[in-house]
Task: inverse folding
């Protein structure tokens, strides 16, 4: 299942040169966003194969046209429990650094253009100890938390491996 | 790419192979093989390199190769005894040739090696010093041309060069030898004896030498063939040119010369046969003990003419042939640096060739000649771009997945339909497998390709470090996937460097420790448990654990109060930034080495380990998968999860119920299998499988060290070929698994790695640290 996304422009945005185009998606009632350039495709939930002793938010791996990639549960990553994935859930396939990964979210909402000036730095949240939030964008209706995808994924894979391989 | 560049590329590729062969043969000789065939092979290799280099205008390479070849020729001709030859020098020269080839390949300025050249020129000098002129005895067995071949040859294909040589010989003869009464031209016989045959003891023997037309392409020259006869015994040599076809249809690389040789010799037929062992096939010469005239076609040019004229007319004839043969002009213009006589003779040839000779005809020849030389030993081969094979391999991988998907689909069909399709599916699986095996075989290569670079490394390092080292290679013919081969070079280089620098002591230290002055490094490759296992063993001092530990502590890698087992300390050698070398040299000591090796090896799904015994030596073992592409696997289920175990690691499967399980004091379960106590691991526990497990089956598997372990699983689902997919590419290494694959239903299954699984089990790790982190929610 691939979702066709409608486009809606940021209400107050003038045709400004330095604008960011952001894909927004929901986990529970919270809205998150990432740059559209990082999104490779959006597909419906598909069963994953769990990995032994991986981080909690690593749901497992799946086969995307012959390529194996790991799926990360964004809900778990932000400390809101584990997603009970159903067919209506969505995997956002993203390119992070040199890897491809899947991000399990509830639904994809929109694509918005925001001027760079509208992005505020993330407040120093105690809760965000892994620095997953890169910045905030205030839309008319809600607040979009821009994700630092590398941080989301790093705290899933690399760190685990580092510790286990040292133990091994 | 333009055709010339492409050819050049091919030439360089061939150079690599030739250099490998050269080095290998020289190495064998250095180790005392004393085999003339090794000398010939080395000579052929350098000769081929020279030929090709000439064609592509690599002048430095040609110049060096020429001198090198010339000195090797002394061995071939027997002027220098094989036992006395300076193979160490030759090996260094082979390194220098490799450097020159590399320089030519990269269009760089080559480093000149006058030292080596001078040393090479010395080879075979002494035996020439005594003047045999005073004695009535004739010239030495080697033909009168001192060095092997004129420089001119370099610019022309070997065939032409050979002709040139022969011509030079003829000219040299006619120039120095007074006319004789008999017809034909004499080769070795000085003017002294008018009736030498009668004066000498022995029998009269007629030899008819009729080489196949590919003689030159086999890089054999008539001079060499004739030179292998004892010069004292030669009464007369005639050249029969009657076979030479009209010039229009003459292929210059064909040899049409036939020789009739009259001998008076004490050698037996067998001994005469032996003389031609390495140059001619049995059917290329006949030996007859008779006083009769040879029953062969008479030499037409020689028939009626008086001797002197005949000689020069043969020469003229050959010159004329040469002159008409396109590439020859270069030969005539060649600098007379080494052999003034033959070149002068060439220059005097009656018919200078036209300037517009098609020079471009030469390049294709050089590789072709090399191949022809190797033809007798190798099957015909084709060079294929690795990319193409990779594509083929990927496609086969896709087919394997599709095929297992089909199998799955068919299972759900109604019985009558299923029965009909089942046979076809079965055939398809068999064919797919066969296809895959063949593609894999295409990619498989012996590790020799990497191993043969190591002797040079060891030699150079031994010199730099002032150590005496013997390198022993074993299992060079162990085959492994091409991709692995390419990745092997760096780790091996590092490992050998490490052993030479840190492991082996200096000769004096070794003597003090009661060891042989010469250290030994063994490089061994073998197949084990579906992997290729390569070990580098040295008999040096072993790892200095105290120093390593102290260093690790000072770097904060090991806590001050942490106690480590000796084996654990040894493993620290793979930690980043550690080096125990006291002096940082250009060899090692910067602490980048073994950790890099480990990372490289692990990224390939391999492993590296070290066993060290203080004072006795150190052994690094590298285990890599045989291929990165496909493997035969047993699909098993445990709880809700399916896994693949490589068939290569499976020894046997049996029902768990029939196997009594015992428990050791520490809680480790073991079972008795074939009278041995075998540890048992429950896969579901080790891998943290989801769902509830009901272990029914135990799989006896083999580890890399050759131990057996039992792995309890719920069910064996089936056996199939699986396409290996990297987990590292988009995720990272997964403990317990070497990679993943896609099963018929499109889901991913992990491919288990027994050794890594055992380590995971031993580490006792059950859950990820992140789960302990307090996350607000």
Result:
């Amino acid at each position: 299942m691939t979702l066709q996304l409608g486009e809606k422009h940021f209400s107050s945005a003038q045709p400004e040169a330095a604008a960011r185009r952001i894909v927004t998606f929901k986990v529970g009632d919270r809205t998150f966003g990432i740059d559209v350039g990082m999104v490779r495709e959006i597909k419906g939930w598909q069963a994953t194969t769990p990995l032994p002793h991986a981080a909690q938010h690593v749901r497992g791996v799946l086969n995307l046209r012959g390529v194996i990639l790991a799926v990360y549960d964004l809900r778990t990553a932000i400390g809101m429990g584990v997603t009970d994935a159903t067919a209506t859930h969505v995997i956002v396939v993203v390119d992070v650094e040199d890897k491809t990964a899947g991000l399990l979210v509830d639904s994809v909402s929109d694509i918005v253009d925001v001027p760079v000036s509208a992005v505020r730095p993330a407040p120093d949240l105690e809760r965000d100890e892994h620095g997953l939030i890169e910045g905030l964008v205030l839309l008319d209706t809600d607040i979009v938390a821009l994700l630092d995808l590398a941080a989301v994924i790093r705290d899933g894979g690399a760190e685990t491996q580092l510790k286990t391989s040292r133990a091994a | 790419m333009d055709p010339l560049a492409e050819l050049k590329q091919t030439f360089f590729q061939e150079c690599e192979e030739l250099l490998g062969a050269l080095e290998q043969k020289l190495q064998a000789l250095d180790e005392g093989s004393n085999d003339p065939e090794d000398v010939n092979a080395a000579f052929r290799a350098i000769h081929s390199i020279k030929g090709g280099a000439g064609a592509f205008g690599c002048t430095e390479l040609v110049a060096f190769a020429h001198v090198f070849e010339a000195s090797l020729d002394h061995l071939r001709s027997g002027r220098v005894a094989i036992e006395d030859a300076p193979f160490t020098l030759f090996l260094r020269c082979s390194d220098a040739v490799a450097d020159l080839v590399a320089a030519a390949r990269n269009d760089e300025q080559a480093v000149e090696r006058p030292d080596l050249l001078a040393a090479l020129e010395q080879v075979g000098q002494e035996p020439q010093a005594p003047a045999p002129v005073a004695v009535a005895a004739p010239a030495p067995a080697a033909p009168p041309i001192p060095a092997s071949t004129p420089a001119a040859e370099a610019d022309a294909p070997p065939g032409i060069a050979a002709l040139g040589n022969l011509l030079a010989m003829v000219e040299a003869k006619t120039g120095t030898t007074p006319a004789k009464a008999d017809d034909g031209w004499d080769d070795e016989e000085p003017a002294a004896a008018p009736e030498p045959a009668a004066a000498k003891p022995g029998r009269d023997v007629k030899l008819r030498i009729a080489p196949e037309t590919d003689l030159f392409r086999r890089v054999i020259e008539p001079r060499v063939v004739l030179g292998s006869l004892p010069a004292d015994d030669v009464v007369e040599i005639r050249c029969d040119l009657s076979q030479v076809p009209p010039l229009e249809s003459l292929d210059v690389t064909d040899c049409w010369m036939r020789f009739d040789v009259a001998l008076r010799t004490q050698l037996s037929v067998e001994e005469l046969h032996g003389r031609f062992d390495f140059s001619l096939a049995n059917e290329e010469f006949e030996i007859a003990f008779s006083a009769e005239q040879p029953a062969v076609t008479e030499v037409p040019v020689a028939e009626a003419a008086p001797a002197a004229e005949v000689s020069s007319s043969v020469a003229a004839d050959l010159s004329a042939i040469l002159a008409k043969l396109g590439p020859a002009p270069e030969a005539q213009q060649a600098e007379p640096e080494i052999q003034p006589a033959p070149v002068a003779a060439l220059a005097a040839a009656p018919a200078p060739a036209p300037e517009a000779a098609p020079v471009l005809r030469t390049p294709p020849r050089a590789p072709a000649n090399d191949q022809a030389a190797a033809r007798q030993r190798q099957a015909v081969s084709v060079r294929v771009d690795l990319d193409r094979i990779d594509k083929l391999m990927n496609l086969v991988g896709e087919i394997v997945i599709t095929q297992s998907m089909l199998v799955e689909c068919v299972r759900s069909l109604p019985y009558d339909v299923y029965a009909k399709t089942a046979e076809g599916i079965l055939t398809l699986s068999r064919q797919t497998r066969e296809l895959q095996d063949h593609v894999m075989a295409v990619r498989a290569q012996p590790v020799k390709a990497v191993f043969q670079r190591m002797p040079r490394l060891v030699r150079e390092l031994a010199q730099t470090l002032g150590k005496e080292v013997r390198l022993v290679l074993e299992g060079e013919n162990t085959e492994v996937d091409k991709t692995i081969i390419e990745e092997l070079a760096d780790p091996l280089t590092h490992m050998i460097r490490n052993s030479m620098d840190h492991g082996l002591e200096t000769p004096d230290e070794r003597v003090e420790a009661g060891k042989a002055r010469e250290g030994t490094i063994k490089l061994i490759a073998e197949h084990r448990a579906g992997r290729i296992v390569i070990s580098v063993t040295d008999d040096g001092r072993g790892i200095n654990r105290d120093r390593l530990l102290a260093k690790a502590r000072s770097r904060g890698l090991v806590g001050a109060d942490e106690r480590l087992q000796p084996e654990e300390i040894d493993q620290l050698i793979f930690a980043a930034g550690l080096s125990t070398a006291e002096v940082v040299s250009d060899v090692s000591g910067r602490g980048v080495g073994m950790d890099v090796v480990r990372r490289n090896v692990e990224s390939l799904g391999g492993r590296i380990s070290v066993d060290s015994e203080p004072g006795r030596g150190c052994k690094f073992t590298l285990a890599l998968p045989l291929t990165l592409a496909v493997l035969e696997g047993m699909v098993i289920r445990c709880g809700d999860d399916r896994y693949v175990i490589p068939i290569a690691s499976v020894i046997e499967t049996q029902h768990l119920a029939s196997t009594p399980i015992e428990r050791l004091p520490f809680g480790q379960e073991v079972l008795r299998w074939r009278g041995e106590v075998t540890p048992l691991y429950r896969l579901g526990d080790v891998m943290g499988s989801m769902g509830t497990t009901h272990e029914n089956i135990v799989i006896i598997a083999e580890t890399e060290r050759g131990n057996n372990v039992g792995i309890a699983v719920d069910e064996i689902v089936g056996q199939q070929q699986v396409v290996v997919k990297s987990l590292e590419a988009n995720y990272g290494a997964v403990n317990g698994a070497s990679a993943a694959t896609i099963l018929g239903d499109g889901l991913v299954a992990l491919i288990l790695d027994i050794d890594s699984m055992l380590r995971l089990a031993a580490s006792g790790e059950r859950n990820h640290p992140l789960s302990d982190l307090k996350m607000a929610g």
